[in-house]
């Protein structure tokens, strides 16, 4: 055989601590057809600084769609199907780099996904620039070995092949046609080169993760052995591998035969009604008015259709796929949302999810039984949602499985008329919804019965749009798009439905009140500034108080939210007001000339506005203006001290009762802001930051100029006559 090796690589990604699905780094690969060996090369590395510690990286694998993971152990939404992902752990301990290989023999062709992440996030809010985080980097490369001349079996035609040795198994394939109800594989005339007893192992199918449904049979001696498959995957190549279990140097000759059982499909309409495509059909959701379906057929109509339906193994329902948006699809049944279901053959609804861009959302299938349409009270409509091929024997076994896929069962009856299924990240393939009527006393009881079931199916990025306590985010890895829910207010889970750690409404209101009302501590600072004639500074403090109040009212994660304008605008104005308040306060303390002070006010504000636009959360946006203003203040104070030949400020009362308390409050505020804030205590630690900063400003503002007198409102009023004031400067002779 001729083997071809190929290598695929993607750029490395920096890993993040896990708090929601967006923190997991996704890698998307495509495995070509006829691949016999797949090898993943996983490389993990970390920085060399002292902040880098031992770390465990979790890597998840899945075929057909991104892995469904749950590192935090939260609850999934009701009616959601969850199957554990296949994962491994990579430990970075003493070594800076770790290289791991993962081998998969006879992998399924198509999309494969890898997701990697660090352990759960600590929840501490780190200010950018105050600490140096350790960088953990992960890269996944893929090696494939595929056959260039894979033998092809023709259905119904015996094919003679040779297994060279146990180390070199035989690989072959057969194409499964559409509407194949079953397949039978036979191994005939097994002969060894040493004329000894033949022993081979036959493996049908490919490996898919997290679950693999390969069929294995061991054949010994000269007796023919066979393997039967129900509902093999339609319109796909089925891989066949034959391994020799005999001597190392002995070859084995085998004759293989693959045959299929055809399924004759029927349809509820003889032609496609194109006129129905010209207008949008409103599909009612289950439980809404108009979703109950039409009335049951009369007994005469049913009896006339029984003989016609016996000749078909399934009844197709024409479906139109409507693409609404990214990872958003609605399936519209042309004959109406209500479909007839009987016991003679399953009713089939095709859900096309094979575009390659549909696996990043959630497939929702809802059923509603029209109770008046079922003449038998104890009858049940059994449904199965499966990929690649439909389940065709629901009335006999009620087993929701096909040859290589375990489907998702549903059922509705008179006592439970509604059923919903949520498939998270459905794999790329053709999906089928099979429905059939089942009676407890046997099929004969249901021959003349028919049920009406309303089917509603759609693909959505996030189920229920993540609810009121979540935000649906569209994520991207190169050209592949997928969605995830980012939860807030303590809620968790895949769709933000887990309220184990959720904040109560009272706690949400308290958090909003603390973060907004704490800004009113700027009122004393504003009053002091106005009293001392620092009107520009008072205007800046008023601006900061206003936008900080409404920014935090809009920034809340729960239901206690009020946004007076765009969130990004409020955030920018809040950050700008905070930094400018520090800037003007320190410059005011420097006691430079007014013209120079106001020039520095304007120039600094413009530069701060520019830097915040470049990097809003950078620590130097605050530290830079602070350090530069402190340098100006120290230079001005030194100049005043040298000029007056004593320390400046000269009053010890000024130091003890104003400057030292103000500096202490400012230092505590910076410490709380930089090192103590976490996601859990943010609402009260940040409120303490507001209070401390506002109080420090009131202490640090210098006294008014000596030539200015306090506000005398009585002297500002003009009633009948003007109160004049002599502002002449007195000249004193110095002797």
TrEMBL record:
Q: Tell me where the transmembrane regions lie.
A: 510-534, 595-614, 620-639, 655-676, 682-701
UniProt membrane topology term = Multi-pass membrane protein
Q: Which domain of life is it from?
A: Eukaryota
- The reply on keyword Transmembrane is yes
Predominant location: membrane
Q: Name which cysteines form disulfide bonds.
A: 462-472, 487-496
Identify the Pfam families for this entry: DUF3522
Please tell me whether the keyword Membrane is annotated for this protein: yes
- Gene Ontology cellular-component terms listed: plasma membrane
Q: Which organism is it from?
A: Pampusana beccarii (Western bronze ground-dove)
Q: Per the database record, which ranges form the EGF-like domain?
A: 458-497
PANTHER family reported for this sequence: FIVE-SPAN TRANSMEMBRANE PROTEIN M83, POST-GPI ATTACHMENT TO PROTEINS FACTOR 6
Name of the protein: TMM8A factor
Q: Which family does it belong to?
A: Belongs to the TMEM8 family.
Q: Which InterPro entries match?
A: EGF, NGX6/PGAP6/MYMK
- Keyword set, alphabetical order: Cell membrane, Disulfide bond, EGF-like domain, Membrane, Transmembrane, Transmembrane helix
Subcellular localization is given as: Cell membrane
PROSITE patterns in the record: EGF_1, EGF_2, EGF_3
